[in-house]
Amino acid sequence: MRPNSTLKELSDSQNVELHTISVVIPTYSIKRLDDLVVLLKSIGVQNYSNVELLVVVDSPELLNQIKARLIQEGLSSVGLLLNKSKHNASAARNLGISNSSGEIVAFLDDDTVVFRDWIDEIMKTFNQDPSIIGLTGPAFPLWEGHPLDWFPDEFSWILGYSSWHDNSRVKDAENVWGMNAAFRREAFQKAGFFSDRMGFRGGFLGSWKKISSEENELSIRIREQTGQRIVFSPRVRVWHRVQTERTKVQYIVKRAFHLGKSRATLLSIYRSNHSLMSTAAEHALCNRMITRLFPSILKDLVRNPLHGWKRLSATVVILLATSFGYISVPAFLLDGKTKRSDSREN
């Protein structure tokens, strides 16, 4: 999808202080309405006033239900957009970008809750360093049911939160996490939008075939087209709900499979440019598993066998599912012959 002409044209100067931010939130189910209200209220108490809120909805019926609830909750200033194109997160986010006016465009999942200084920290990070084109931050688990305190930290990304990453400083990142991300507006002007050929509508338990990681692909494309940095900012914090369904084996297996498949696809697309797409993340994870995870599992098997067995089983299942996802990508793609997924082609 080519950037829409409605995008506000901004100066290319990187030294102008940024003041306005638009927050785009896709939503697709009435089951998430209570979560959405909690999220909007958490944004409403931010110590920042120049905020535009845009909720993108998949159906007219859901839009009317949300509109009525927001009026009831005193949130009538929130903008509602009806997504009439593909019903997936990419298309919804693209509609939000096209209709936004902020100098910064941020994205949240509808089941997140932001920290009180979330917007302040986003604006501070961008204004302190003009070389930063995009950012992401940590997501802490907000358990719906009983916390899986035995679940390996190394695989927290399977359940939608972050744990073992270095949270002490701003550092370069390969990509953003879609549930907590922000970009300068010029990122979309120069690199295009999310590829709506990637991504899911809500969950992905119904399909083994689709490719996820649309935010990863866009992040890499933005770095390629702008030559600027995407960073992990430890103070840009959110809570992310871990629904009970995410703790079930079926979800974990499919999530791991899709991430392995998507990673292999992206590596094949950007294989020729190691500065954009490397295996550093995989090496870091392997190193942590060898030096920390497996030794701790062995200790658990002696001291607390049930706890250790759960951690070992989860580790084996996730590694196998991710590997099967990785090798499911056809060999000709891994030879670097796959077509670039660039939203500007549409």
- State the name of the first-level CATH class of the domain at 21-248: Alpha Beta
Structural class per helix/strand content? Answer: alpha/beta
Give the strand content.
15-25%
**First-residue to last-residue Cα separation:** 4 Å
For the secondary structure, the number of strands is 11
Query: What would the average pLDDT be, to the nearest integer?
Result: 86
Shape: globular
Query: What is the name of the CATH architecture of the domain at 21-248?
Result: Alpha-Beta Complex
Q: Which ranges are low-confidence, i.e. pLDDT below 50, for 5 or more consecutive residues?
A: 1-14, 331-341
Write out key terms for the chains shown.
alpha/beta, 42% helix, 11 strands, disordered N terminus, 11 helices, Spore Coat Polysaccharide Biosynthesis Protein SpsA, Chain A, eight-stranded mixed β-sheet, 346 residues, three-stranded mixed β-sheet, single chain
List the helices and strands and how they pair.
Layout: E1 21-27, H1 33-44, E2 51-57, H2 60-72, E3 79-82, H3 89-98, E4 104-108, E5 112-114, H4 118-128, E6 132-136, E7 139-143, H5 156-159, E8 171-172, E9 180-184, H6 186-191, H7 214-226, E10 229-232, E11 238-242, H8 249-269, H9 280-303, H10 305-327, H11 331-337
Helix pairs in contact: 8-10, 8-11, 9-10
Q: What does this entry look like structurally?
A:
The protein has about 350 residues and is of the alpha/beta class. The protein has a domain at about 20-250: Alpha-Beta Complex (Spore Coat Polysaccharide Biosynthesis Protein SpsA, Chain A). Helices cover about 40% and strands about 15% of the residues. The protein contains 11 helices and 11 strands. The protein has helices at about 35-45, 60-70, 90-100, 120-130, 155-160, 185-190, 215-225, 250-270, 280-305, 305-325, 330-335; strands spanning about 20-25, 50-55, 80, 105-110, 110-115, 130-135, 140-145, 170, 180-185, 230, 240. It has an 8-stranded mixed beta sheet with strand order 3-2-1-4-9-6-10-8, with helices on both faces. A 3-stranded mixed beta sheet has the order 5-11-7. Strand 1, helix 1 and strand 2 (about 50-55) form a beta-alpha-beta unit. The chain is globular and about 55 Å long. It starts with 20 loop residues before the first strand and ends in a 9-residue tail after the last helix. Mean pLDDT is about 85; it is low at about 1-15 and about 330-340.
